[in-house]
Write a structure and sequence with these properties.
Elements: H1 7-32, E1 42-47, E2 51-54, H2 60-79, H3 94-114, H4 121-124, H5 128-141, H6 143-146, H7 170-179, E3 181-185, H8 189-192, H9 195-208, H10 215-224, H11 226-232, H12 258-267, E4 269-273, H13 282-295
Antiparallel strand pairs: 1-2, 3-4
Helix pairs in contact: 1-2, 5-13, 7-13, 9-10, 9-12
Length: 303
Amino acid sequence: MSDFFNSGWSTFIAVATVVSLVACLALLVIASRRKPMANDNTTGHVWDVDLVELNNPLPRWWMVLFVLTVVCGGAYVFLYPGLGSSAGTLNWTSTGQYEAEQKKATNAMAAVYARYVSQPAEVLAKDAGAMGIGERLFVNNCAACHGSDARGSKGFPNLTDNDWLYGGSLETIKETIANGRQGVMPPMAAAVGSAQDVVNVAQYVLSLSGSPHNAIQAAAGREKFIACAACHGVGGKGNQALGAPNLSDKVWLHGWGEEAIVAMVNNGKTNVMPAHASRLTPEQIHVLGAYVWSLSRGASSGP
């Protein structure tokens, strides 16, 4: 595929474009110089006994329209990037236009966000206007993963409960939105021990949340769980500084049960929350963060 990105292709496209425009003009010139092909101004072609093809000139309006089309095409490739890698005299780019439109929209909304940027989450959560904006920001930027109702799905956290991997304060939520997160659970089978040890640890993890489990296997897995305690804590309460989940509640991000836990211990898992600092302004992140903060507290008064 790298062959398509060398300068030769740019030259080829530029030459092909110019030749096409010139060929169109040449076609017009040739068509305008009609010559009778028979004494009666016909081409000599007859169909269905009496349907005769005449050698009349092209309509003037059609000729004018064709010329205007070619002229407009030439003007376009002169002004805009239509000749290979040539930028055109206007130096227009789709990226530049997008950025200009984004800047215009940001400036237009600056006055709206100005009234919200200094307000804490507790105040914004009771402001219907702020929550309406936050909801729309959420739908446009977050709903694809977390769902339009923010309840998430397997592998995507539920934002309406109080179970937070990194903490649920407004500042922490804003940091997550702006910079993203990368949660890594390394494969731990070698550290835990044998395949049976992994099963025992899975049963012990189930016991931490009061889930149905095999008590004998769970007791055997308790000692082996020490390999996991560095991140999840001795009691499996998790560590928000590391983003290590709390294993003692009944919130299962990647699936519940022995099979799911064994797979996690054996294979590990990497979850990525993309950064949005390049997509959203700090003011938008503040309002969006307040909206997400309100979801788990039932304080939103938005639509």
